[in-house]
Design a protein that fits this description.
- This protein is an alpha/beta fold.
- The chain has one domain: NAD(P)-binding Rossmann-like Domain (Rossmann fold, 3-Layer(aba) Sandwich), CATH 3.40.50.720.
- About 45% of the residues lie in helices and about 15% in strands.
- It has a 7-stranded parallel β-sheet, sandwiched between helices.
- Helix 1 links the parallel strand 1 and strand 2.
Length: about 260
């Protein structure tokens, strides 16, 4: 049965770009978008990594192509996204996932710590969104999805710089949503809790650490990459056509407390 009240969650004939897609959440998001029908531009700083992930997606029946993209090289972002749009036929969806994470006590943070995280998490994200937005605004349709964090909404010890960068991401999402929504381009963010990935396994495989994390999550468990993928596919789809300037938490209730 088809209903006019249930828009499609499929992404057939859409082209999606995922930054920082060589591993962990980024790789999972590229795979989820491809499974939903999108053609995916897998980007990573290393061209071989990007091409390897794209090849793995293609082997599973998806459609993907790898591209080298370092979001800290802001002068290269526009040309690379224009190339993607030209080679894949459009640029409809941007998932701005590239990011750094680190634990620092506030008294120990150096200027280098601050600059390196802001260059990727905030500056790099903005100029990637700007370059994609220019293409989408001209086309009259687009989805920009930033990967934020629950640390953008609540304080978490030893995450001062990370939390500041992700709080900035949320504000960018709101402002870009205001500026671009009327032209058919929505801008939203997904804010996950602790997600089990190869990068977080070292900490989450420590029973004491994991128990402390899960005690803060009302659902009593950490998240999976698939949990984030479902949120991203939703925001990328027609089903989220009236969702704009929003922060979608995927946190098991952490920030509800």
């Amino acid at each position: 049965m088809e209903s006019p009240h249930l828009p499609s969650f499929r992404l057939d004939d859409r082209v999606a770009v995922v930054t920082g897609a060589s591993r962990g959440i980024g790789r999972g998001l590229a795979e989820a978008l491809a499974a939903a029908g999108a053609s995916v531009a897998v980007t990573a700083r290393n061209s071989a990594d990007a091409s390897g992930i794209a090849a793995a997606i293609n082997a599973l029946g998806g459609h993907a192509r790898g591209y080298a993209l370092d979001v800290t090289h802001t002068e290269s972002i526009g040309p690379i996204l224009a190339r993607i749009a030209d080679e894949l036929g459009s640029l409809d969806i941007l998932v701005a996932n590239a990011g750094l994470g680190a634990n620092h006590r506030a008294v120990d943070v150096t200027e280098s710590d601050w600059d390196s995280m802001m260059d990727v998490n905030l500056k790099g994200l903005f100029f990637t969104a700007q370059a994609a937005g220019r293409i989408m605004l001209e086309a009259g349709w687009g989805r920009v999805i930033a990967i934020s964090s629950q640390a953008s909404l609540v304080g978490i010890r030893d995450h001062a710089v990370y939390a500041a960068s992700k709080g900035g991401v949320n504000q960018l999402v709101r402002v870009l949503g205001l500026e671009w929504g009327a032209a058919g381009v929505t801008v939203n963010a997904v804010a996950p809790t602790f997600i089990y990935t190869p990068g977080t396994a070292e900490r989450l495989d420590d029973p004491e650490y994991r128990a402390a994390v899960e005690a803060r999550i009302p659902m009593g468990k950490v998240g999976s990459i698939a949990d984030v993928g479902g949120a991203v596919v939703y925001l990328a789809s027609e089903a989220a056509g009236m969702v704009n300037g929003s922060i979608l938490t995927v946190d098991g209730g952490w920030t509800a407390q």
